[in-house]
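Quick log. Single chain, no ligands specified.
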Amino acid sequence: MSSINRILLFTVFCLVVSHELQVCIAIPAQFLGGQTDCKQKCSERCMLKIFFRRCFRQCSTCCQRCSCVPPGTSGNIQACPCWATSTTGGRNKCP
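-> predicted structure:
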């Protein structure tokens, strides 16, 4: 009976470990600090700005730090929490 309990316990352990691995693999790279195509995403974010170069430079810095860029040309900062919390002098640092 003891060997059956060990086999059952080992099987349950293997199932739990395999489930955890699947969950970890399914997490998007942006939440793990993975690479984001900052150049393309910042070009899209800043394309309507009058000062494109300034916006692009700030966006690139924030993208490298946060590993994400909010969708759209402005706003939507809730999609990237790091973006929303980056401030300088009480104002948003990221465009």
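The first helix runs from residue 2 to 26.
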